[in-house]
Write a structure and sequence with these properties.
Length: 511
């Protein structure tokens, strides 16, 4: 491995550290859900005579929670309350209402606002200084019934003993005594996830115990960080940024987490795990009878890709995100210059966060020219646009290409040659002419990046690469000036599968 690889991978390690939730957040969450458990188990509780297990689920349980994109440091804590009661004695509605009653009393006792009811759970809204809210899900054990169902269908029995039934106001048996409740298995999923990283997890936990001169059991699981968990955190941040303006296409966390855990090969470094996961994760997406399938490892009847079958554009969005992530992190892992590292990842990680990661590493060569000095605010808006896709061709700078003229044309007006960033009237027809010194044959591509509310609402942010015509003389591209805001166009030359020249972004300001 050469020095550039070592530095690039080291910067990815630092990036993972900047995404970590402070340990104090985990400790506060731990105290809070245990406080709720004690309240439900007190003598005056409606559940006083019921065996009860309270535990977390979701990203806090798996150790894959990340700082919120907004930066407001408010987190979601998902908690399961498993009551050892019979479904022959209470309906879903009764259990849901009983838990709500106790949580209302808990909130009043602690000076909190009244909890909010939802289809499946209740939300405890903590004071702002707590910086999180808790979704509390009522449930009952259901391992025996789920075993019979799976055996009848000849399905895997893995983790079936951990299965539970949950409440859902939309379920057809919500208000009726019935054995048929919605099923879930958060403990089973967590056990599967831990098994996927167990060798590395146990090795690191043991090392931490030795360093602290403590028993392994005394090291809380949330203090142990594995490359799988860190890689998932990076991927979730990348996903959040990529779809900040197109939330309808955002791949779900459970899809990313499940595919990443399947693809993890016990790599010992974060960069190694990240690149390996990106390379293999789509291999665990199945196609069954023409439908996309990502099976829940703890319940083979549940398909995490259901939404893809209901809306095929979601699968297209996932594939687009995966290709973009592969290109971003492959490039970042190769870089030894901190400024280039920041510029590569800023669009889909966030410039401030990537710069904070770079600041952690000493001895990395950093450019003395700041980004602010290299690009004005308008250029930054375009270069950091999350939908601006990275080139996927290997880079080999053989020649140059420049956008030599940009012309705006409107009916009733003379054609106007304009410069980068110069305001252009909406409704104009635009022509861009480029010249290159690269010898034929080659391919030409144009990257158009739109920004602004109008383009977002029209779902026309673009950001990909459009093939252009290769004709004698200049290379020309026609575009319309439809959306107010700052946009860009860039010309790229590809020869023998290599990116040999790019013009740099030409700003188009439409007013």
């Amino acid at each position: 491995m050469n020095q550039r690889n070592v530095i690039g991978e080291g910067l990815i390690e630092d990036l993972a550290e900047t995404l970590q939730i402070p340990q104090s957040r985990y400790e506060a969450a731990d105290r809070s859900y245990r406080s709720v458990a004690d309240w439900l188990d007190r003598p005056a509780s409606v559940f006083a005579d019921v065996d009860l297990e309270v535990y977390t689920q979701g990203s806090f349980r798996l150790g894959t929670a990340i700082r919120p994109l907004s930066g407001d440091e408010h987190y979601d804590l998902d908690v399961v309350c498993e009551f050892d009661i019979s479904k022959a004695d209470r309906t879903q509605a009764q259990l849901h209402a009983d838990l709500g009653k106790e949580l209302k009393l808990y909130a009043a006792r602690h000076g909190m606002e009244e909890p909010s009811p939802w289809d499946r759970c209740w939300t405890l809204n903590y004071a702002d200084e707590a910086q999180f809210h808790m979704d509390v899900l009522p449930s009952v054990p259901d391992g025996q019934r789920q075993r019979l169902i799976r055996e009848t269908a000849s399905l895997s029995l893995d983790f079936v003993e951990d299965a539970i039934s949950i409440t859902d106001t939309q379920h057809h048996n919500y208000r009726r005594l019935s054995d048929d409740w919605p099923a879930s298995n958060p403990n089973g999923y967590a056990a599967w996830f831990l098994a996927r990283m167990r060798p590395v997890f146990e090795s690191r936990r043991k090392a931490m115990a030795i360093q602290a001169r403590a028993d392994v059991a005394d090291i809380p699981t949330y203090r142990v960080r594995t490359p799988l968990q860190s890689a998932i955190q990076i991927l979730k941040r990348h996903r959040d940024m990529r779809f900040v303006d197109e939330p309808e296409g955002r791949p779900s966390s459970i899809v990313i987490t499940t595919l990443a855990a399947h693809a993890y090969g016990q790599e010992s470094t974060i960069a190694g795990a990240l690149l390996s996961i990106l390379d293999r994760m789509d291999a665990y997406v199945e196609c069954r009878s023409g439908e996309w399938w990502i099976a829940n490892p703890s319940d083979p009847r549940e398909n995490f890709a259901d939404a893809w079958n209901d809306d095929p554009s979601k699968q297209v969005a996932f594939d687009d995100w995966l290709q973009t992530a592969r290109a971003d992190f492959a490039a970042a892992s190769r870089l030894g210059d901190a400024t280039e590292f920041v510029d590569v990842l800023a669009p889909r990680i966030g410039r401030d966060l990537v710069e904070a990661a770079v600041a952690r590493r000493r001895g990395v060569q950093r450019s003395t020219v700041t980004f602010a000095a290299r690009a004005n605010r308008a250029m930054r808006r375009v270069l950091d646009a999350p939908h601006r896709r990275p080139p996927t061709w290997p880079i080999y700078r053989e020649g140059s290409v420049d956008i030599v003229t940009a012309t705006a044309m409107r009916d009733g007006f003379r054609p106007h040659v304009f410069s980068s960033g110069e305001p252009i009237a909406r409704g104009s027809e635009l022509r861009f002419d480029a010249r290159t010194e690269v010898k034929r044959p080659f391919e030409v591509f144009w990257q158009i990046v739109n920004t602004g509310e109008a383009a977002r609402v029209a779902r026309d942010l673009r950001g990909g690469f459009d093939a252009g015509d290769v004709t004698p003389g200049v290379l020309s591209r026609y575009e319309g000036a439809e959306y107010p805001g700052t946009h860009s166009i860039e010309c790229l030359i590809v020869k023998d599968g290599l990116l040999v020249a790019r013009s740099g972004s030409f700003l188009v300001t439409i007013v």
